[in-house]
Structures are given as structure tokens and as C-alpha cells.
Design goal:
The chain has about 200 residues and is mostly helical. It contains 8 helices and no strands. The protein is about 75% helix and about 0% strand.
Length: about 200
């Protein structure tokens, strides 16, 4: 039962979902007036670019033998998916969320791009930082920054995020997907870019 639960945590809170969770949180908490049509268009576009497209690319890479599983267990498997993810994030920054529209989300995705590039460089160097921890740490830092920016109380959400960080770390250790240092490095790769970029929009 415990094995199934821990494996489910890794699957349910896959890094592919983290950017969309950040965007949904922003639109649900932002006091700014944004027409519902624009919100819907942004969310649908992000669903396609951050979830549907990466899934399709994953199956393509799997069919041609470049990856073996969705968890990208080796540094060699990570190179092409991370590169493609960086290209998708760059497209989102340039076309979907430019700084002139929603500056908070623009810098959120700039932080995601920096984290992706850092993870890509480490993969070239044969170090396998935890992508799960990168995703959850980056989103959590974005939530904290938004709560300060909009002066809103999201203590319940933050408590849940910290519980999820612990659960994901435990899950990745339990299935022997990462070492302690890989989890720790992943956490800081996700958190630090978001923390630094807060200075540009907070």
C-alpha cells in the first residue's frame, strides 16, 4: 500500500504539471481585472504547450528509442526532452506571456527556463538533478512571492506545498530514483531562479 502511494505521488505531481499550477494559482488570486476570454485563451494555450505537446514529444522519443520511461532515469535520456522543454518555454515567453501583458507570469516562466537550462547543463555533466524537486520548489517560491505581492493569506496552500515537497522527496528516495544530494540540488535549482527574479516584479 505504501509503495503504491509513494509511486502515485511521483506520477500525480509530475513536473509537467507545475507550470500550469502556477498559472492557475495566479489567475485565481490576482486582484487585477483580466477578461475571462483572455484567461481561458491563456490556459488553453498553456495546456497545449506545457502538457499535450510534451506528452506527444515523449511518445515520439519513446518510439524512436531515445527515452525509456516518463521519469527519464538517465542523464542521456534527459538531454533531448530538456532541450525541447527549453524551446517550448522560450516560445511561451516570447509569444504567449510577454512582459508587456502579465509581468508576474513572464518572470515565472523565465525562472522555469533558467531552471531547465541548469538541469540540462548538469545532465551534460552526468549529474541527475531531481526534476520533480525543481518543479515543486519553483512553484512554491512563486506562490510565496505572489502572496507577498498581492498581500493575500495563502498559508493553507503553502502548508500543502511544503507537505508535497516532503512527500515527493520521500517518494523519489523510496523508488531509488535519486540520492539526497540530487534532490537537494534539484530543490535549489527550482527555487533560486524564482527567488532572484522576484526582484524584477515584486
Amino acid at each position: 500500500m505504501m509503495n503504491w502511494l509513494l509511486k502515485s505521488v511521483s506520477l500525480i505531481f509530475h513536473p509537467i504539471l507545475m507550470p500550469l499550477l502556477g498559472v492557475l494559482f495566479y489567475f485565481s488570486k490576482s486582484p487585477r481585472f483580466i477578461p475571462i476570454e483572455i484567461i481561458q485563451a491563456k490556459i488553453i494555450s498553456l495546456l497545449i504547450l506545457t502538457i499535450a505537446l510534451p506528452i506527444l514529444l515523449y511518445f515520439l522519443l519513446k518510439n524512436i528509442g531515445r527515452v525509456n520511461s516518463i521519469y527519464l532515469n538517465t542523464t542521456k535520456e534527459r538531454l533531448i526532452p530538456l532541450f525541447l522543454n527549453g524551446c517550448i518555454t522560450l516560445l511561451i515567453i516570447n509569444r504567449l506571456l510577454p512582459p508587456t501583458e502579465i509581468i508576474e507570469l513572464y518572470y515565472f516562466f523565465v525562472g522555469i527556463l533558467i531552471s531547465t537550462l541548469a538541469c540540462f547543463i548538469l545532465a551534460i555533466l552526468k549529474f541527475k538533478a531531481s526534476i520533480h524537486m525543481i518543479g515543486i520548489a519553483g512553484v512554491t517560491m512563486f506562490y510565496i512571492a505572489l502572496s507577498i505581492h498581492f498581500s493575500i493569506n495563502v498559508n493553507g496552500t503553502l502548508a500543502l506545498m511544503f507537505i508535497l515537497i516532503g512527500a515527493i522527496a520521500t517518494s523519489r528516495l523510496h523508488v531509488k530514483a535519486h540520492s539526497n544530494i540530487e534532490l537537494l540540488i534539484g530543490f535549489f535549482i527550482g527555487l533560486v531562479p524564482q527567488l532572484i527574479l522576484v526582484n524584477y516584479w515584486l
